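Predict structure. Input: FANCE protein, 185 residues.
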Amino acid sequence: CHPQLEGLCSFLQLSTCPEHLLVQFCSWLVALTSDLSYSSAAILAEQLFLQRVLSLTQPPSRHLMAALASFCSKYSQPFCRVLVAALLREPGEDTEQTKLVCELVEECLEPDCVRLVLSQVLEMPLSEKLLPVVQAVLGRQEVLPPELLDLLVLTLCRQAPAFAMSMNYAKLVTALLTIYQSQVS
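Output follows.
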């Protein structure tokens, strides 16, 4: 019931509720005995977090981080497909949003969602904004499927001229060669 759920979110003003109440709401959602459907969780991820996170101009509050961590502990797939994908597509530097995605990758997301974030990044042209996200993924030292690792290596090779002067790119390539040295020739 997408229109009803969106209407309920609007009625409850979930997108603008105080962050301490957001934490309580997310805790309640996670504690439900039956899981939300994928589409309902995706709608809630968008309604609860998207505008808050897109408007960040400073690091997120501990309440917002607690709410994000709580929600994505149970609904990480829709969370990544809606919220993380939107953050990655945003034009510009968006320093706070990039830091937030990196923190989520490093501390909150399950391995399958870490791989999902990497695949989402690799669907776009690489930019300085996206390099720290890939670095965070590599920092997890997860086993990457061969096809995803091959795509990452190919993308980094193709984009090398554009990042000739980038320290972030150099760190990323070094990390890749260190962590996956047996798979990269």
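The mean pLDDT is 88.
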